[in-house]
Amino acid sequence: MSFTASEIAEKVDGEVVGNKATTISGFSKADSANSGDLTFAENDAFFTLADKSQASAILAPSGFHSSSKTVIQVKDARIAFARVLPLFFNEKSFTPGIHPTAIVADSAKISDTAYIGANCIIDEESTVGSKSIIQANCTIGENSNIGENVQLFPNVNIYSGCNLGNNIRVHSGTVIGSDGFGYVFDKDHHRKVLQIGGVAIEDDVEIGANCTIDRGALGDTIIGHGTKIDNLVQIGHNVIIGDHCIIVAQNAIGGSSDIGAFSVLAGQVGVAGHLKIGPKSIVAAKSGVITDLDGNNQYMGFPAIPAQEAKRQIVATKNLPKLSKRVTKIEKIINDNNSQTNN
Predict the structure, then answer these.
(1) Per the residue annotation, which of 225, 237, 244, 274 is the catalytic one?
(2) Phi-psi region for residue 48, left (φ > 0), alpha (ψ -120 to 50) or beta?
(3) Cα–Cα distance measured from residue 60 to residue 18, given in angstroms and rounded to the nearest whole number
(4) Model confidence at 343, in pLDDT bands (50, 70, 90)?
(5) Cα–Cα distance for residue pair 253/95, rounded to 1 Å
(6) Catalytic residue check, 237
(7) Among residues 143, 140, 148, which one has the least CA distance to residue 165?
(8) How many Å apart are CA 2 and CA 8, to the nearest integer?
(9) pTM of this structure
């Protein structure tokens, strides 16, 4: 499908500088763009490359101009980039229906507009909403509910008693509703505490590949509206993650911790159990959270402390070798003086 520069600008709230009738039929990065392509540049370096490319038009922030190409100026180039891509690239579509190899319980309710792929298993009393896509080899346990326009990629496992809202994407290998890690030491062994809660995932959530979200011990583990979870994330039982959080790869969040809305946990953050992280917190990569954190602040380190304090400690640590030499020198002077006095 082709668009004029003017049509694309309208879709991204942009302004055309140059030929509004420029025809655009594709999107590509600068070094592989051809005539008819739109390319993307968000800074001077990338704009220079884009301006030298074969692309017919450039999507760029306000203030960028080209003497040879049409420029679509936008307030935020990354947001515009995200809006433009679906115009040229569509995900695979699925015709509604149930694959002959799928096993669907008689009491399960599947929307006529949903797709159930090969070798899927849908257990008793479960539901799959309209326009949802359950790809091959997925399992949905009993009494679990899948909302509208949900996509489960291949090999996703939803245990019993889980509820997924609308417009959710769950990538391959993720397990939702596995048992929380609950044990008590009884005389001479670890006795398992049954995990009888569930998992509730609110609308517009995306969960990456090979994540594990444990069911609650009693109540539900909750993932808030609009939250995005990267690959390889472990979320313990009864965790509550607020709305619109970003949880980056290889995070581990201990049971019953509460992550406030609009927070960001960077890669490989560890959060101990039963903690509260306030809204709009940003925790730097590889940090270890072992105490409650107030919201509206940045944290880093192990243990995680306010970022400015942590940076001062890092600088001080770098100066320790010099300080050690100074102390040694001062000690020698003191010892020499004491020796002379005693003599």
Answers:
(1) 237
(2) alpha
(3) 13
(4) low
(5) 38
(6) yes
(7) 148
(8) 10
(9) 0.90
